[in-house]
Amino acid sequence: VVLVAGYSDIGYESVTGCRFKDMAMSTSWARLVSSFGMVAVTYGNARPADDLDALLRHIREHAAELGIDADRLALWAMSGNGALALATLAASPAGSFRCAVFSCAYLADLDGATDVAAAASQWRFTYPGGFAVESLPADLPVFIARAGQEQDPGLNRAADRLVAAMLAANRPVTCVNFTAAPHGFELFHDTLETREVIRQMMRFARFHLAGTAADGVNV
Predict the structure, then answer these.
(1) Which end of the chain is less crowded, N or C, counting CB atoms within 10 A of the terminal residue's CB?
(2) Model's pTM, two decimal places?
């Protein structure tokens, strides 16, 4: 499970005092992913899109020594990291990833909308743009956790358009609408419902990464 960084560490560190991979948020998510029996990957970057491509290439080329199955990769992204993760999925050949998980994530502008582009300009996250649902692998399972009390209405408008487009194209999408949750509920909204939504995200990733009984894997 690659925890995607959509911000350059150059700017990120100037604001937060540390790199994305060193944030307690990132290290805690990595430990949680590990507790569900998966490998978590965090990383540093200067050029988010180029460095994510380089990271994925490194993982695939050195999978054995890293203890990673190169055929069982997933992308995970929250907030401003989502747009880069989604664009990477769309630009990758079919079979490159087993699944993707998004939470409170800026994703893509469809149908002439500009919500994600405007947020990227304000918050300085990477948004490649030019996304179309048809560019996603047809069999790629996607999980989207939606915060019903999201502070930026544009984020949910973009997510809702994407979910609707995926449903219209009969793509494998799972959407959880957490009606009471604010943006970043995973970090700031300590409730039983939050924990259950996080479990759903983890189970989704584990199910699609573990394979089937035919692979000799018990889930």
Answers:
(1) C
(2) 0.94
